Amino acid sequence: MSFTRQLSEMSASELNDAIDDTNFPQAHILSRGRNNSVCSTSSTSGTSSLIDRALSHSEETNNAAPSPEEKGAISENATASPTTPASTNRPRLILKTNGTIPETDGTQPKTPMTPRTSTTPGSSVPDCSHENCTFHHDLELDHKPPTREALLPDMARSYRLLLGGLGENPDRQGLIKTPERAAKAMLYFTKGYDQCLEDVLNGAVFDEDHDEMVVVKDIEMFSMCEHHLVPFYGKVSIGYLPCNKILGLSKLARIVEIFSRRLQVQERLTKQIAVAVTQAVQPAGVAVVVEGVHMCMVMRGVQKINSKTVTSTMLGVFRDDPKTREEFLNLVNSK
Ligand SMILES: Nc1nc2c(ncn2[C@@H]2O[C@H](COP(=O)(O)OP(=O)(O)OP(=O)(O)O)[C@@H](O)[C@H]2O)c(=O)[nH]1
Ligand SMILES: [Zn+2]
């Protein structure tokens, strides 16, 4: 049984669990400290990840390793590149979330939703059905789906208790509305739980005979550390090599929003963005680099105010071809 078929037989939640829990053997993590020293670690875990196996299957079925002679060009700055292989011979990266969505019918598969398990006992808050919910198309959260609003009273009560726990008087003038404000703010910080890839893409996947690298870099990112519930923030750079399908540029930034606006660790965030781009356009490869500042390391704990964490996920040709990877990294690091 092929691995793509195995993937297609997994339920969305199983796939989500597998994606969330699987580390890429070659994910690079660089930590830059105060003195700019760079520490690079590569996990050498022998466990092949979901994506690895999907990729190797994809390569087997396509049986077409890119030739070094093939040439491409960098689309963003029009710099000629001798390294980007032509799409005709590129293995296409394919990830399927379930067996019901054929990969060639133009329908975008849904991103597996992170299950909402944070509801208060006793309150029944169903997962957002996305029906009548324009939230996904308006990431500014001027209006909230009913399920999100239903969370507010319990959350506000929790914040009120928290204020009391701090020894504060929740009824003093400055704090009267604070529990509700804080609850709304937390809902905003985690609004990605109510977004899915299909809705965010809004059909902006276009057939295009374009086989050169597309890079959108320095996308601002704000997320919440799942260990301490304090922010981490930074920037995300995404590159992909299209296989006759391109993505509306803003959708790359919107994909970052889906996964950053959740409780996260940076490694998982990086991987989820790469997987989502793969699901959206089945390119020959995807590269994602995230540079983050973790307030849990700045305001508390080790208090290293200049440290930055850099994580990357390289899929497909970005993983297999060092020159393609280098081309991407050069673009990302150029001013
Ligand atoms: N790998 C990873 N670790 C993270 C991330 N955000 C926070 N952490 C770490 O999560 C760890 C939690 O460690 P604990 O020892 O349980 O918690 P702690 O006592 O608050 O740890 P310190 O931060 O070292 O004070 C810390 O090392 C954090 O730096 C992330 O995105 N990725
Ligand atoms: Zn933290």
Brief descriptors of the model:
7-stranded mixed beta sheet; GTP Cyclohydrolase I, domain 2; binds guanosine-5'-triphosphate; EC 3.5.4.16; 11 helices; GTP cyclohydrolase 1; GTP Cyclohydrolase I, Chain A, domain 1; two-stranded antiparallel ribbon; 11 strands; 34% helix; hydrolase; alpha+beta; 335 residues; elongated; binds zinc ion; GTP binding; GTP_CycHdrlase_I
Please write out the topology.
Elements: H1 3-9, H2 12-21, E1 28-32, E2 38-42, H3 50-62, E3 72-73, E4 80-81, H4 146-165, H5 178-189, H6 197-201, E5 205-207, E6 214-225, E7 231-241, E8 245-247, H7 249-260, E9 263-264, H8 266-281, E10 285-294, H9 295-298, E11 308-316, H10 317-320, H11 322-333
Parallel strand pairs: 6-9
Antiparallel strand pairs: 1-2, 1-11, 3-4, 5-8, 6-7, 7-10, 10-11
Helix pairs in contact: 4-5, 7-8
Bound molecules: guanosine-5'-triphosphate and zinc ion.
